[in-house]
Amino acid sequence: MQAAEREIAENIIRISGVNPRKCMKCGKCSGTCPAFNDMDIHPHQFVSMVEKGKIKELMKSKSIWTCLSCFACVERCPRNVEPVKLIEAARLSVIRRQGENHLKADEIPALLDENIPQQAIVSAFRKYSK
Amino acid sequence: MQKIGVFVCWCGSNIAATVDVKAVAEAVKHEPGVVYSFDYQYMCSEGGQSKIRQAILDYGLTGIVVCSCSPRMHEQTFRKAAASAGLNPYMVEIANIREHCSWIHKNKDEATEKAIILARTAIAKLNLNKPLVAGESSVTKRALVIGGGIAGIQSALDIAEAGYEVDIVEKSPTIGGRMAQLDKTFPTLDCAACILTPKMVDAASSDKINLYTYSEIEAVSGFVGNFSVKIRKKARSIKTELCSGCGVCTEKCPSKKAKSEFNMGLCNRTAIYIPFAQAIPNVPVIDREQCIKFKTGKCGLCQKSCPAGAIDFTQQDEVVERQYGAIVVATGFKPISLENFDEFSYSLSPDVVTSLEFERIMNAAGPTKGQLLRPSDNTHPHTIVFVQCVGSRDTSGCGKPYCSKICCMYTAKHAMLVREKYPDTEVHVFYIDVRTPGKNFDEFYRRAVEEYGVNYIKGMVGKIAEKNGKLMVQGSDLLANEQIVIEADMVVLATAIEPDETAKSLATMLTASIDTNNFFTEAHPKLRPVESPTAGVYLSGVCQGPKDIPETVAQATAAAAKVIGLLSKDKLLSNPCVAGSDEMLCNGCSGCEKVCPYGAISYIDKEFKAAGKVEVRRVAKVNEAICQGCGACTVTCPSGAMDLKGFTNRQIMAEVDAICR
User: Fold this and answer.
1) What phi-psi label fits residue B393: left (phi over 0), alpha (psi between -120 and 50 degrees) or beta?
2) Which residue did the predictor score with more confidence, A52 or B374?
3) Is there a contact between B393 and A24 if contact means CB atoms under 8 Å apart?
4) What pLDDT is stored for residue A99 in this prediction?
5) Of these four, A90, B120, B473, B542, which has the most CB atoms within 10 Å of its CB?
6) B chain contacts of residue A33, beta-carbon cutoff 8 Å
7) Which residues does chain B have within 8 Å of residue A76's beta carbon, measured at their own beta carbons?
8) How many angstroms separate the CA of residue A49 from the nearest CA in chain B?
9) Which of A4-18, B186-200, B620-634 has maximum average pLDDT?
10) Minimum distance, in Å, between the CA of residue B494 and any CA atom of chain A
11) Mean pLDDT across B231-241
12) Would the CB atoms of B396 and A25 count as touching at under 8 Å?
């Protein structure tokens, strides 16, 4: 189980181009993140988890989807770690797993919001359902 | 033909583990010129050296090759050993079979083969060596200290104590530097001014120390033992010999718009001013850009009120030239600009201050007379947040990659002083690590936490926004895994420090090296921390790297010790491996003169007599005392007239032949 986890972590590192070892654990990313309070796993933890290869929790969490991709963490990080790239790679790793269906047709009515454009629903259905 | 002895060192296992040293000694036994070959475990030890000395006497050796570590380690050692046995020290060649061979290869056969080639190369060179005699130069028994802060003052006091004359050149109107701006110093909480001002007075009253304040270095030429320096004495507009320091002029001056540099811009000063009350010399200076008389021709109140008639609006800068044997660089530091750190709202809110500004606020002689008041409305702050590492440890390009070293300690000091004086004020410190390496330092920081209740939060501040006169400080608390917002009245940023802006131009003038952060480079980071690689230039204080006051004073005294060692000599031996021009081949093209980085080459018109005729030709002349033997001229010379003693063109070709054989 650990080896498989490690492999996924290494994949995330490879896709994102991020070197998580550069992180000096200062916490500035989490200090800046506007979505911090809506996550249960936070930016500084993302980096640490990928570095250690313990990403099972990460893959299952809702927190990686809460990231706004605002890039504030990238702007503020004093070591150029770019945590948001790790999150995007983590998202890709989740989506690319074969046979996983992330969006079922009967889930859509509950998610509808008058602010969501039609295109978003169509492209989500294209990307996230199998 | 030479009679060469080859000595192959094992260097314990450093060489012997990867190179078959016995095989090397055996292989070179029959090289041209070699009469003796020997291997030994530690050639640089007393045992090894005595073997070398004995061999020189027994075999009548005219030269020795030592196959060992880099010449940068022990060339001097073996030169001395040779000289003590009566052999010219420049008939010594080193074959580096350690750094260039055993330390970089793994295969023993290949490494041994390479070592043999390296030995052969050194032998080929030595066969063409000529005995050289080191030149002599005199030593001017006076030292120059550039910078009049605690580092410069301490170095000067120690040099003067040994009986030598010292000049301190300081660009601001007074000596004292950064330490004069501080309130209390860690870890003892001594008052900075109380321990600094006696040293300032000692420096001023010493008959061996000359103070050149409000002065800057304009040009430096020469070399170790014989520096010639031009100093620009900027015009104070005051006749210093008449001024009594009464201060009436500063009271009368109507121009009060200038920002006080000493108080980090937190309050104003007059155009004619003394930086602080204990300034030495206690003589004011006129800031001509703020002075109404200089700008409009009207006013002159200071001149009218001066009882000593010391004001002189016509005074000009004066450039003087002085000779020195040694130079100490003590130019200090300044906090970095915060223009890349908008997240902290430093430029938006007057209540966000840097640590040095905070130091001035806490100081009893500062802009608020030591009362802790918010700059915006002069009220007492009930919550203060300190932010560590602002601009330090930053590899993103916004700040400096290094740790500024002093901030963890001074923030603990600030936090403790606030809590002691104002127990009702909450103090929070956002930190990444708390670095307290010195003596009694960790105990000091723990007192701040345990006795004074300073709240240390492991995490960083993401942004600070102003709201209704309060500062909303948003940051992470990593141990609680939360993002917190503290409503603060005041925020203090522990700003990174960088070398003074004059460091770069000064380094160029001195041809002293600086690193990518503009700190002066030391000759060796561990073993030679106070010397610059440039001979005769010494380093003292933060100009060499961030450090606190105890370390600065230690380094200042160390630099002084080196200076005293230099000035105590009556003459210096110079490196004889210098360039020399064959005047019969020189065509006077000036190529070498233009390319010499040290300005060691000049051209002279010389008379040549041949076949009854006399002609005058322009030929190159090398000043052997300045020449550093870099070889740039030798390479440039189109006619081959210029050659380098000890590394002649023929010798280099012989080495290449030996390698390619």
Assistant:
1) left
2) B374
3) yes
4) 61
5) B542
6) 462, 483
7) 343, 462
8) 14
9) B186-200
10) 15
11) 96
12) no
Asked if pLDDT for residue B83 goes beyond 90, the answer is yes
CA distance A5 to chain B (A): 24
Q: Could you report the per-residue pLDDT of B639-661, keeping only the tens digit for each?
A: 999 999 999 999 999 999 999 98
A49 has a chain B CB within 8 A of its CB: no
pLDDT digits (tens, 9 = 90+) for B244-274: 999 999 999 999 999 999 999 999 999 999 9
Task: Show the DSSP H helices in chain A as ranges.
Answer: 2-16, 28-32, 43-52, 56-60, 63-66, 72-76, 83-96, 108-111, 118-128
B483 with A72: Cβ contact below 8 A:
no
Q: Is B242 on the interface with A (CB under 8 A)?
A: no
Task: Flag if A24 and B432 touch (Cβ within 8 Å).
Answer: yes
What's the pLDDT score for residue A107? 80
Is A66 in CB contact (< 8 Å) with chain B? no
Domain ranges (residues) in chain B: 4-127, 148-179+193-228+321-332+506-567, 248-305, 334-498, 579-644
From the list A31, A45, A72, the residue facing B475 with the nearest CB is: A31
Mean pLDDT, rounded, for A66-94? 90
CATH tag for B4-127 (out of 1.20.58, 1.20.1070, 3.60.21, 3.40.50): 3.40.50
Angle, CA of B332, B337 and B343, to the nearest 5°: 140
Question: Would you call B472 an interface residue with chain A, using a CB distance cutoff of 8 Å?
Answer: no
Q: Taking all residues of chain B, what is their mean pLDDT, rounded to a whole number?
A: 94
Chain B stretch 330-349, residues whose beta carbon is closer than 8 A to a beta carbon of chain A: 343
Residue A1 has pLDDT above 70, yes or no: no
Residue B533 and residue B535: Cα distance in Å, rounded?
Answer: 6
Please determine, for residue A98, whether its predicted confidence score (pLDDT) is greater than 80: no
Running DSSP on this structure, what letter comes out for residue B542? G
Fold of the CATH domain B148-179+193-228+321-332+506-567: FAD/NAD(P)-binding domain (3.50.50)
Contact between A27 and B474 using a beta-carbon 8 Å cutoff: no
Percent of chain B with pLDDT over 70: 100
CA-wise closest residue to B88 among B561, B576, B640: B576
> What's the half-sphere exposure (Cβ side, CA atoms, 13 Å) at B118?
26
Over residues B507-522, mean pLDDT: 94
Q: What angle do CA B253, B241, B213 make, to 5 degrees?
A: 75
User: In Å, what is the CA distance from B318 to each residue of B102, B129, B612?
Assistant: 59, 51, 54
Q: What is the pLDDT of residues B390-437, one digit of tens each?
A: 999 999 999 999 999 999 999 999 999 999 999 999 999 999 999 999
- For chain A, give every residue range classified as CATH 1.10.1060.10: 2-97
Contact A27 B478 (CB under 8 A): yes
Q: Which superfamily does A2-97 belong to?
A: Alpha-helical ferredoxin (1.10.1060.10)
Q: Residue B174 corresponds to which tokens in the numbers above?
A: 């007074």
d(CA B566, CA B225) in angstroms, rounded, equals 8
